[in-house]
Amino acid sequence: MRVVLSRLPTGLGILMIAMIVGCASVSNPQALSSKIDIDLGNVNSEGLRGPPDGLRAVHYEFCIPAGEDNAEEVRSIDPTAQFMSGSRGRIGCARDQILVVGSTHQRSYRQVLERLAALEYVNRIAENFFE
């Protein structure tokens, strides 16, 4: 793909390149799936797995930098998100991070996980086995 930027002002040209690169990295499903460390192969459309008489949600956890802006962004993506300030979780959040726990038992859980993984400040989403 060849992009001609010679006619664009320098600032706008740089902005366009940044947008193209950003879109390419977000649209790369392998990059997002590498951040999601959860086996979703046997999770049904309702976000549940297990035997028919014992279906249960898959709980997951990840760390975000402390700050209300980040928490608000996560809340807008994942209505199941619970914030565990002061807890490191199994994933090992740092002192300047907040542990977030969520659940697959929600509408479009795969898209929710992909949107969370696309957040720059989320490094890994792992299954939480606290059941």
Overview of the structural elements:
This protein is α+β, with helices and mostly antiparallel strands and 131 residues long. The protein has one domain (10-128): 2-Layer Sandwich (Alpha-Beta Plaits), CATH 3.30.70. The protein has 4 helices and 7 strands, in the order ααββββαββαβ. The strands form 2 sheets. It has a 5-stranded mixed beta sheet. Strands 2-3 form a two-stranded antiparallel sheet. The radius of gyration is 18 Å and the shape is globular.
Brief summary:
This protein has 131 residues and is an alpha+beta fold.
Fraction of residues in H or I helices: 25-40%
Within the largest sheet, what's the order of strands? 1-7-4-6-5
Q: How many strands, what sense, and barrel or not for the largest sheet? A: 5 strands, mixed
The CATH architecture assignment turns out to be 2-Layer Sandwich
Number of helices: 4
- List low-confidence stretches: 1-6, 13-26
Descriptive tags:
single chain; 131 residues; alpha+beta; Alpha-Beta Plaits; five-stranded mixed sheet; 4 helices; 7 strands
Topology overview:
Elements (H helix, E strand, L loop, with lengths): L9 H17 L2 H7 E2 L10 E2 L6 E2 L1 E7 L2 H10 L4 E3 L12 E7 L5 H9 L7 E4 L3
Parallel strand pairs: 1-7
Antiparallel strand pairs: 2-3, 4-6, 4-7, 5-6
